[in-house]
Amino acid sequence: YELAYDSFVSVRLFDVTGRQIKILYSGYQSAGKHELGMSVVGVASGTYFCELSTNSVRGRTTQVKKMVVLR
Fold first, then answer.
1. % helix / strand / coil in the chain, to the nearest 5?
2. Rounded CA gap, 28 and 12, in Å?
3. Phi, psi of 15 (to 5 degrees)
4. Who contacts 1 (Cβ-Cβ below 8 Å, separation ≥6)?
5. Burial class (CB in 10 A: 0-12, 13-18, 19+), 54
6. What are the DSSP calls for 33-66, one per residue?
7. Measured by CB atoms within 10 angstroms of the end CB, which terminus of the chain is less buried, N or C?
8. What is the pTM of this model?
9. Collapsed DSSP state (helix, strand, coil) of residue 69
10. Residues 6 or more apart in contact with residue 6 via CB below 8 angstroms
11. How many Cα neighbours within 13 Å face the side chain of 39?
């Protein structure tokens, strides 16, 4: 993902019922391109949603992407 501004970033993983499974990242990041790896150890096969939330001087944004874990 790419941040246009320095931001507080939260990346969380949810199951299809909306239950939070993991916090993948929570912290401050500078503007620019970033990569985030994810271990699926302990995560069952199925459909999940990854939420990327940012909070900067320009406001808050949230993006959600659907993910499928296959074993």
1. 0, 65, 35
2. 15
3. -90, 180
4. 33, 34, 36, 52
5. buried
6. E-------TT--SEEEEEEEEEEETTEEEEEEEE
7. C
8. 0.89
9. strand
10. 28, 29, 30, 31, 56, 57
11. 2
Q: Look at the alpha carbons of 67, 24, 14, 53 in this order and tell me if their dihedral is positive or negative.
A: negative
Per the DSSP assignment, residues forming a β-bridge with 35 are none
Tokens 């503007």 belong to 31
- The sign of the dihedral angle between the CA atoms of 59, 65, 43, 47 is positive
Residues forming a β-bridge with 15: 48
How far is it, in rounded angstroms, from Cα 37 to Cα 7? 19
